[in-house]
Amino acid sequence: MIEERTVATPASLRVAVWLGVPAAGAGLGWLIHYLLDWILRIPFAPFRSLLRQVERLGEPQATIGALVVGAGLGLIFAFYIDREALTVRVAGTEVVLTRPGVHRTVPRADITTAYRDRDHLVLLDRTGREVAREPFLVGARRLAALFGTAWHDQDPYAEEYRRWVPGLPQVPAEAEALFAARQRALDKHDDRDVRELRTELARLGYVLRDDRKRQHFRRADQ
């Protein structure tokens, strides 16, 4: 019988996100409404025209509107947080990574290193290339038990990274163009483009680590 082991984001945490974040948003909306007169006295207050329109509403419409808008924004944030609710399942010859909208299967034999990079689970093969990088909020202890000897408390290649800046002589033109495009995507908070360009650079043998919109890279073994 094949042993199967699973580490998942606790259901209680996901429920807390879906209930707590909208509630916090509603509370913030009520607080802004309560402090509206004071906020509008601030010359550089954002969304002044919108706040002026709220001020003109009568009661209880203004309070109800503030609560509904705040809760709605909270639901949006909860949706993006829940997208990082990853489940890692190790069974037989496969490691399966699933979260809302994502289902990835990685051959277990391809994984020689696993570690957490801030809030991401990273899996590497024997050449040091990334075979998976997924957001994960569960503690490292449970992951260490799941991956066994492949688990590392930190990136074993941490000392090999260097910062990318335009015009590095060892970076060929194709990779240079991808790095430049990805830097623009980082600056614009275009997460989709950031991920896709990471994948393109990985095909060229580059492994990336971001630090406050700065790209650091190393070359994997060829």
Write a concise keyword list for the protein shown above.
single chain; PH-domain like; alpha+beta; 3 domains; 7 helices
Arithmetic mean of pLDDT: 85
List the uncertain runs: none
Order of helices and strands: EHHHHEEEEEEHEHHEE
Beta strand %: 15-25%
Q: Structural class of the helix and strand makeup?
A: alpha+beta
| Helicity level | 40-55%
Shape: flat
Distance between the termini: 37 Å
User: Sheet bearing the most strands, described?
Assistant: 4 strands, antiparallel
Adjacency order of strands in the biggest sheet: 1-2-3-4
Describe the oligomeric state of these chains in a short phrase: single chain
Number of helices: 7
Cα-atom radius of gyration: 23 Å
Describe this structure in words.
There is one protein chain. The chain has 222 residues and is of the alpha+beta class. The protein folds into three domains: 11-82, no CATH class; 87-156, PH-domain like (Roll); 159-219, no CATH class. The chain is built from seven helices and ten strands. It has helices at residues 11-34, 36-40, 48-56, 61-82, 140-147, 173-187, 191-203, and strands at 4-8, 87-91, 94-99, 102-107, 113-117, 120-124, 130-135, 162-163, 206-211, 214-219. The protein has a four-stranded antiparallel β-sheet, covered by helices on one side. A hairpin with a 2-residue loop joins β5 and β6. α6 runs antiparallel to α7 (191-203). The mean pLDDT is 85.
